[in-house]
Amino acid sequence: MPAAPFLTRLLPVLFAVFSLVMSAPKANAEDKVLRVGTLKLIHGITPYFYEKFAPPGYKIEVVPFESPTDGKNAVLTGTVDTCIHGIAAFLLGAAAGEPVVIVAAATNRGMGIVADAKSDIKTIKDLKGKRVAITPGSTQEVVILERLKAEGMTVADIQPIRLAFSDMPAALARGDIDAYVGAEPGPGISLANGTGRLVEYPYSTPIGSLNMILSASEKMIKENPERLKLIVEMHKKATDYAMAHPEEMVEVAMQKLGQQRASIEKAVPNVELTWKIDDTFIERAKAYSGLMVEKKQVRQAPDMARAITEQFM
After folding, report:
1. Which fold has domain 111-200?
2. Do domains 32-108+209-307 and 111-200 have the same CATH topology?
3. How far is CA 6 from CA 1, 3, 9, 212, in A?
């Protein structure tokens, strides 16, 4: 065969192979960056330990969010592969038909009702008529409504103030509010600097200490279950490791959240990192969903069989 026709036929093939080789490293590099979201809270600290348990060649990019809703939305848009955020934001989305799913538990406890240390507020009943900071759409909002109900009160008996978790300790110290229903390390900050008094850790409701979950989109579960399995496996190992090394939790929280040691040390005992979806978790999640319907935060409860998967347990 003459050389020219042979080369003419071979060139397109070589070009195709060259193009494939040149594009492959970029695709592989992107695929091996696992983007995980979490909230800027001590009980959202687990993803910062994922790197210890990442498979060879994989990198972890932790994306912090200020609000639970922002984290949940990032999962839906594919900005992150998974996110740790409050179960309330998840249920609000799932009840509205959003394709978001709980793939693992994340945190129990991590909440606290704190009052001005100079005030006479010592119980839930003492909140009557007071300015109480609450983050709308949060787990804490559902909890305080249930605690008020248990004391024969409603939200109309207090002056609810819309405020982000991170702003609550400073607002209390300035006297802008009388109390807040916060998330760690907020309560730890107020207790450590002496500006706050603990009213209670509000875990006596039917949802117990359930707080945050690890979510993923239905699309991720369907199209890339192996990638999700990698993340959940890291989540399990990182959770167990962090709980077994509380001093490292303190150090990581100081580095990532910029808090002082005294406040973090107050907060850590009030945080239980977890990962198991078991009967207790499902029971509490269903109770939570029921409370949100009762309090008219959602019109109807989501299909919990669809909203929670044990596929990665």
Report:
1. D-Maltodextrin-Binding Protein; domain 2 (3.40.190)
2. yes
3. 7, 5, 5, 64
* Domain ranges for the chain: 1-28, 32-108+209-307, 111-200
- The pTM score is 0.81
**Mind listing the pLDDT tens digit for each residue in 268-294?**
999 999 999 999 999 999 998 998 888
Classify domain 32-108+209-307 at the CATH topology level: D-Maltodextrin-Binding Protein; domain 2 (3.40.190)
Would strands 33-39 and 82-86 be described as parallel, antiparallel, or unpaired? Answer: parallel
Joined tokens for residue 192 = 């450590």
- The answer to whether 52 touches 241, Cβ cutoff 8 Å, is yes
Find tokens 């999700």 and name the residue.
228
Given a contact cutoff of 8 angstroms between Cβ atoms, the answer to whether 37 and 83 are in contact is: yes
Task: Give phi and psi for 135, each to the nearest 5.
Answer: -90, 115
Q: Which of 101, 99, 91 is nearest to 211 (CA)?
A: 91
Sequence-ordered list of residues with C-beta below 8 angstroms from that of 139, at least 6 positions apart, any chain: 68, 86, 87, 88, 111, 210, 211, 212, 288
Which residues, other chains included, contact 97 with Cβ-Cβ below 8 Å and sequence gap of 6+?
none
The two structure tokens encoding residue 226: 């192996």
CA–CA distance from 308 to each of 25, 80, 275 (Å)?
35, 19, 13
Q: Which amino acid is at 291?
A: L
Between the CA of residue 35 and those of 24, 79, 155, 254, what are the distances in Å? 20, 8, 38, 22
Nearest one of 140, 156, 262 to 201, comparing CA atoms? 140
pLDDT digits (tens, 9 = 90+) for 104-146: 999 999 999 999 999 999 999 999 999 999 998 788 998 999 9
**HSE-CB of 98 using CA atoms within 13 angstroms:** 21
User: Is the peptide bond between 47 and the residue preceding it cis, with omega within 30 degrees of 0?
Assistant: no
Residue 309 identity (one-letter amino acid): T
Angle ∠(249,251,252) on CA atoms, nearest 5? 65
